[in-house]
Specification:
Layout (H helix, E strand, L loop, with lengths): L1 E5 L13 H15 L3 E5 L9 E3 L14 H13 L7 E4 L16 E5 L8 H6 L5 E4 L13 E2 L19 E4 L8 H11 L3 E4 L5 H8 L8 E3 L5 H10 L2 E4 L9 H8 L4 E4 L4 H4 L6 E4 L2 H10 L5 H11 L2 H16 L1
Parallel strand pairs: 1-2, 1-4, 2-3, 4-5, 5-6, 6-7, 8-9, 8-11, 9-10, 11-12, 12-13
Length: 335
């Protein structure tokens, strides 16, 4: 079986810091390579893989503003499509644009839908619904207008994270600095809980950061540590009292939620989107509806067994389980 994995080129695969699509693409490619499968990763040239790397774009476009993202994307996607005949399966992790090539090639294409950036992109998915194979990353993120081959939860490489049986005293926010992610609400929860909050993440909305986050940063009670890489991430997640995830949208998946639990850290999340699929309420964290409930949950974190968090996450959201799910999808298609 020869598999082509199409990653995004916004960031390196795997990313140095932020880059969820690229991280998942990497975990799939590396998991397949570990099983001896012939896998080619289509990503930026600075990417790293145990399989074969195919690239025409020297650098990731989000880190190089001098590049035109649309031009880079077209070059990147067409590079794979012109080699489509060399593969048994193409696994698209790069949104809807590759679908527009799918009827021009004979190789079947699996598309993992990593969420819908807008309802306006759904017509593209609908057009290719009968000739493509769609995989959702949570049951909550399925569109009723589409057909799906499977739900395969995102999986993480558990070897990259360390279990910490002893919690720290600090609350943690880990994610994009954006209204959708609820950084402002995390600050409010921390203040009302009278606990220190560490914030780590890529500033995606500068105006929001300037108005809703930065005024509260004092480097004592509210601390912003920037966009953390893997080593810092492991320390932050493992050393936290709890991860705050007060999202303001129906999140299709939350890698940081799973990563925190792998480290033993419980998660307090607003009960939206995929959160009920990721968190066992009152067992690996708490599902809440507002800031006040979140504050109550902070006071109840001591009742959560950190080992339960780790065992739940590692048994349900490992890269091994994710690869098993995708292999099943590939094999069904080839049969």
């Amino acid at each position: 079986m020869k598999i082509a994995i199409l990653s995004s080129i916004a960031w390196r695969t795997p990313p140095l810091k932020y880059g969820p699509w690229e991280q998942v693409s990497s975990n799939i490619a590396e998991g397949l390579a570990d099983r001896g499968i012939d896998v080619t990763l289509f990503a930026s040239a600075d990417s790293i893989t145990k399989g074969k790397l195919a690239s025409v774009c020297e650098q990731s476009d989000a880190e190089h503003p001098e590049l035109d993202p649309k031009v880079e994307e077209c070059l990147h996607i067409s590079h794979l499509m012109e080699r489509a005949h060399q593969f048994d399966i193409i696994h698209n992790n790069f949104d809807f644009l590759p679908l527009t090539y799918s009827r021009l090639i004979k190789t079947p294409m699996v598309t993992t839908i990593h969420g819908f950036s807008s309802p306006r992109i759904i017509p593209v998915y609908k057009k290719y619904n009968k000739t493509s194979y769609y995989v959702s990353i949570s049951n909550s993120d399925r569109s009723p207008e589409l057909s799906y081959s499977a739900t395969v939860y995102n999986g993480i490489d558990t070897k990259e994270f360390s279990f910490n049986s002893e919690s720290g005293e600090t609350l943690l926010f880990f994610g994009r600095i954006h209204p959708d992610k609820g950084v402002s609400e995390a600050i409010e929860i921390a203040k009302k809980s009278k606990r220190k909050l560490i914030i780590s993440g890529l500033i995606q909305d500068q105006e929001y950061f300037a108005k809703k986050v930065n005024p509260y940063i004092d480097d004592q009670d509210i601390v912003y540590v920037g966009n953390s890489g893997p080593v810092e991430r492991n320390k932050l997640l493992g050393g936290a009292y709890a991860l705050l995830h007060p999202i303001g949208f129906d999140e299709p998946f939350g890698l940081s939620v799973v990563e925190a639990m792998i480290c033993g850290t419980p998660v307090i999340a607003f009960n939206r989107g995929s959160m009920p699929e990721l968190i066992l309420d009152a067992k690996t964290g708490f599902l809440v509806n507002n800031v006040e409930e979140a504050v109550e949950a902070v006071n109840s974190i001591g009742f959560i067994n950190r080992r339960d968090c780790m065992e739940w996450a590692s048994s349900n959201f490992s890269s091994e389980k994710m690869v098993d799910g995708y292999l099943e999808v590939y094999q069904k298609i080839l049969r």
